[in-house]
Amino acid sequence: IATFLGRKLQPRPQNEVEETLKRIQGQKGVQGIIIVNAEGIPIKTTLDNSSTVQYAGLIHQLVMKARSTVRDIDPQNDLTFLRVRSKKNEIMIAPDKDYFLIVIQNPSD
Amino acid sequence: MTRLCLLAFQRGCQTRPVHTAEAEIQPLLNADNGTQTDPQDHLIYQLPPKGELRPESPGLRDFLHRVEDMVVKELASNAKSHAFDGFDVNWEDQNETVSCIHCLQHPSAQEKGLQVTSISWSCTGSVIACAFGRVDDGDWSTEKSCVCTWNLDRRGLNPKRPDMVIDVARPVMSLSFHPSQPSLIAGGLYSGEVVVWDTNRTQDLILAQTGMSTDTHREPVYQVAWVPGPRRGEMVVLSAGSGGRVLLWTVDSDEGRLVLSAGFALIRQQVPHNSALSKNRGSSNVGVTSLALSPWDLDTFLVGSESGLVLKCSFSAQTLAAAPPDGESVTLRAPAQFSFSPRGGPVHSLHCSPFHRNLFVSVGTDGLAHLHSLLQPDPLLSLRVSDSYVFGVRWSPTRPLLFAAATGQGLVQIFDLGRKSLRPAATLDQLTGGQPVYCLEFNPRRKDLLAVGNADGSVNIWHLSTELTEQGPRETAKLEQLANEVAE
Question: Can you say where in the cell this protein is located (chain A) (predicted)?
Fold first, then answer.
């Protein structure tokens, strides 16, 4: 068993992240998932390269704007979830300090 | 009594003398080196290459842990929700009717009895250019004609007076605006010449032309188009004519010449056939009457011929054409790779769907519109458009299931493949007294405009209703379904 400073080293938890993404992807109508870091750079995606880059850049700006809107109205408040519904699908964004989770769903699929 | 005492102190300081010394160095060995970063677009947005072992982003697992339940709950309830059923938003004014907003004419061309053979919108969508010539019989090889342009966004638009009239010595059979430079127009003439006009010039508008050389077509040029050239950003002119030649020309504006850069010859014997060829034992050249470029695959193009053949061709075909060399400066190649089931007469127009990579529609003198898949020879669907000839067909740039066809009876029939019935969704009467409609083009920028060119020398600009221009839900999916059906 590999140890460092006397503590057992945990195995790289790659699988758990992938498992979670698979569970979300398996929900009805989910077309794609993107995880974006705090700088707006996509770190995980199930979509193609160019769509991912496009979504990441545009949504990052949108979340920042939405968050500042909520906090301007009430500084004690904060953004917890953002949903953008359009003719063709719905984009759901779960924001956080370090990451955003973006899920694109077509509910009528 | 107070006494103000001003106390002043004076201090000074001085560093100790600074020791200095001189020394020299000289490198014994010299070496030069340089570094250069490679230019990369969107450097900051490059995804890390897959498969590389990289450290797991810190906190990602915990983040997903936190949000997973909430997101899954929202996804599930959204899938079941009826909250938005029937909810529609009107961002733009809904237009219920189809109307003809302009009827553009050039009286002097109409007096000569010239017909509109081809129309083209500029890349900005403001200017419509139309070419005059004649499609019906007659000795018109020496008839002068013209190309007229109107700017529809200009105030004081006079439909009876074009903004610009370019006089041409021969009838013009085809026209195409440059896809990014709004002032360049390429035209194919009845004599086989190809000309590029620059509407920015004041004096001689001809930027480049083929002239009558050994390279040019010997027969009328029925189709011109701009295709990407070998160098990035460069566009070359493609011309196709009834002599069976498809030629690519580079624009040499300094010399004012169009230089032949590549060429293809369609020879009957080299056409791949998987169905009975027509019994026409005429010339071995396959006269091209229509051509379509694929927006999905820059290497593929479709050719429709005078005898009813529809061929899938490739720009990168290497087979040499079996045509006797006629003094051309490039070796001609045979481009045909696949032959679709032939039609009963000349194929006047072909168009590839902008929404599905495998679909295209073809029309001809048999009055039918055939919806084809690139993957099989037989059509997927055959629609009766008209009892007479059909001269033009174009897919809608905004609705995947819609296309419009121009008939010889003076009508434009608009078909919606999403409807159960095979009858047209709309019929636009060009009010030409039954004279044919030869060409039609959707505006590339303004999705509700359709230009139609008629045999009586007029160009009608139609404003389409929202129903014909707004994409409905699931249209792309329905088109996909249509494309996957296998014909019996």
Answer: Cytoplasm, Cytoskeleton
Does A34 score more than 60 pLDDT?
yes
> Residue B89: which of A89, A87, A90, A83 has the closest Cα?
A87
In the block, residue with structure tokens 């060119």? B453
Does residue B109 carry a pLDDT above 90?
no
Q: CA-nearest residue of chain B to A40? A: B45
Dihedral of CA atoms A77, A78, A81, A86 in degrees, nearest 10, equals 90
How confident is the prediction for chain A on average, in pLDDT? 87
Residue of chain B minimizing CA distance to A92: B71
For residues B479 and B359, the answer to whether their CB atoms sit within 8 Å is yes
What pTM did the predictor assign?
Answer: 0.76
Backbone angles phi, psi at A43, to 5 degrees: -115, -20
Q: What pLDDT score was predicted for residue B488?
A: 42
B44 touches chain A (CB under 8 A): yes
∠ CA B433-B346-B320 to the nearest 5 degrees? Answer: 145
B75 interfaces chain A, CB cutoff of 8 Å: yes
CB contact (8 A) between residue B64 and residue A101: yes
* B464, B146 contact by CB (below 8 A): no
Q: Which of A20, A45, A87 sits opposite B68 (nearest CB)?
A: A20
Residues B473, A88: C-beta atoms closer than 8 Å: yes
Name the band, by pLDDT with cuts 50, 70 and 90, for residue B269.
Answer: confident
B356: nearest Cα among B394, B315, B395: B395
User: Could you tell me if B185 and B226 are in contact, meaning their C-beta atoms sit under 8 angstroms apart?
Assistant: no
Task: Please state which of the ranges B45-59, B334-348, B375-389 shows the lowest mean pLDDT.
Answer: B45-59
Of B63, B79, B474, the CB nearest to A96: B63
